[in-house]
C-alpha cells in the first residue's frame, strides 16, 4: 500500500523531517490513545490509512522520510500541511508566508518515483508488483482551501481554485496508473463546516449561516460538496480512459456527516462540534491555545468525541470512516470487495 496526502494521512513524515511549524504533534496528548506516545499523526491515535492497512493484513505504513526502513510492503508519502497545488500557486496569491511546507502532491509523487527502483527493476516486474498494491491518493486539497480561507480569501476566489485542485489530483492518479497502479482510492473532502476551527474563526450571529439540523456552517459544507462533485466527475472520466484500473472514490463527507446527525449512534456522547483537545471557547478551539500548546488540555475519553483538535478527527471517528469505506456504501465500490474482485 502506498499513501499520498496531508495531515489526515501523515504517519510521521513531518515529524521525521524536523520541520515543525506544528510542533505540538511531537508530544502528548498527540498519540495518547493507541500508541501512547506521539508518532507524528495529527490525532490521538490511528488514522484511516492505519485502519485500511490493518484490514488488509499489512503493517502500518512507515513514513518515507524515515530512512533505513523496508518499504517492500508499502510507504507513506503524506506530509502534514501538504497541498495539491505547488507552492508557486500560493506564493503568487500572497499566501506564501502561511504555507507549512513546500511538499505538494507533485513532490510526493517524485519521492515515490525515486523509491521505485528499490522495489522493482523492469516494466513487467513493476506492473506485477503495483497491480497487487493499493494506492491512496489523498486526502489532499483540504489545505489548499484552508490556507486561503483562514487567511482572508473570499469564497468566490477560493471556489475558483477547485477545478485546478481537482485536475492535479486526477492527473496524479493518472501518473500512478501509468507507473503500474491498478487499485486506487481517491478521497473527497470532509464536511469542513462542522470543524471546530471553522466554527470558531467564522462564527457569526447570523442564524441563517448554520444548518438547523446540526449547527454546521452551511456555506463551507456546500463548498466541500462542490469540490467532491467535481472530483467525482473527473474520476469518472479517468475510469473511461483507463478501464483496466479500479478507481475508487472514497466519500469522506458521506462517511462523516452521519456523526453530526446521530452522534449517539456512533458512541459520540460528547457531541460532534466541540474538540476533545483545546483551550476553551464555545467549541473548545482557541487559536492562541491550540491542542498541545500551553493553556490547552485533552479530554479523558477521546473516543466519545469526533473532533480531536479542531481540524483533525479522533481515532474513533477515523475508525467509523474506515468501516464505511472498507465495507459500506461510502467507497464506490467498497475497498474490500474491489480488491477481492
Automatic annotation (TrEMBL):
Alphabetical list of Gene3D superfamilies matching this protein: SGNH hydrolase
Alphabetized InterPro entries for the sequence: GDSL (IPR001087), SGNH_hydro_sf (IPR036514), SGNH_plant_lipase-like (IPR035669)
Keyword set includes Chloroplast: no
Molecular functions per Gene Ontology: hydrolase activity, acting on ester bonds
Signal is among the record's keywords: yes
Keywords: Glycoprotein, Hydrolase, Signal
CDD domains found in the cross-reference section: SGNH_plant_lipase_like
Family: Belongs to the 'GDSL' lipolytic enzyme family.
Protein's recorded name: GDSL esterase/lipase
Species this chain originates from: Dioscorea zingiberensis
Amino acid at each position: 500500500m502506498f499513501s499520498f496526502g496531508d495531515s489526515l494521512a501523515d504517519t510521521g513524515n513531518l515529524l521525521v523531517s524536523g520541520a515543525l511549524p506544528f510542533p505540538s504533534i511531537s508530544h502528548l496528548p498527540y498519540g495518547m490513545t493507541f500508541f501512547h506516545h506521539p508518532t507524528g499523526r495529527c490525532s490521538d491515535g490511528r488514522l484511516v490509512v492505519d485502519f485500511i492497512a490493518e484490514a488488509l493484513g499489512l503493517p502500518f505504513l512507515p513514513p518515507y522520510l524515515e530512512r533505513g526502513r523496508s518499504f517492500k510492503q508499502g510507504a507513506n508519502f503524506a506530509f502534514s500541511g501538504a497541498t495539491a497545488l505547488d507552492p508557486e500557486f500560493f506564493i503568487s496569491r500572497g499566501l506564501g508566508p502561511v504555507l507549512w511546507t513546500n511538499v505538494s502532491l507533485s513532490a510526493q509523487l517524485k519521492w515515490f518515483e525515486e523509491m521505485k527502483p528499490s522495489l522493482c527493476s523492469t516494466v513487467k516486474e513493476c506492473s506485477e508488483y503495483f497491480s497487487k498494491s493499493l494506492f491512496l491518493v489523498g486526502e489532499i486539497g483540504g489545505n489548499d482551501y484552508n490556507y486561503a480561507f483562514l487567511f482572508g480569501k473570499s469564497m468566490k476566489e477560493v471556489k475558483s481554485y477547485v477545478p485546478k485542485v481537482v485536475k492535479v489530483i486526477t492527473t496524479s492518479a493518472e501518473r500512478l496508473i501509468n507507473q503500474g497502479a491498478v487499485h486506487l482510492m481517491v478521497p473527497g473532502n470532509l464536511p469542513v463546516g462542522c470543524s471546530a476551527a471553522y466554527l470558531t474563526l467564522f462564527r457569526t450571529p447570523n442564524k441563517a449561516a448554520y444548518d438547523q439540523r446540526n449547527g454546521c456552517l452551511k456555506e463551507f459544507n456546500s463548498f466541500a460538496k462542490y469540490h467532491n462533485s467535481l472530483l467525482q466527475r473527473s474520476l469518472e472520466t479517468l475510469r473511461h480512459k483507463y478501464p483496466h484500473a479500479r478507481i475508487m472514490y472514497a466519500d469522506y463527507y458521506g462517511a462523516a456527516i452521519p456523526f453530526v446527525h446521530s452522534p449517539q449512534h456512533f458512541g459520540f456522547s460528547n457531541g460532534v462540534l466541540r474538540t476533545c483537545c483545546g483551550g476553551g471557547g464555545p467549541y473548545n478551539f482557541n487559536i492562541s491555545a491550540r491542542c498541545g500548546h500551553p493553556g490547552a488540555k485533552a479530554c479523558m475519553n477521546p473516543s466519545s468525541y469526533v473532533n480531536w483538535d479542531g481540524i483533525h478527527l479522533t481515532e474513533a471517528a477515523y475508525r467509523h470512516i474506515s468501516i464505511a469505506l472498507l465495507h459500506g456504501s461510502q467507497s464506490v465500490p467498497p475497498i474490500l470487495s474491489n480488491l477481492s474482485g
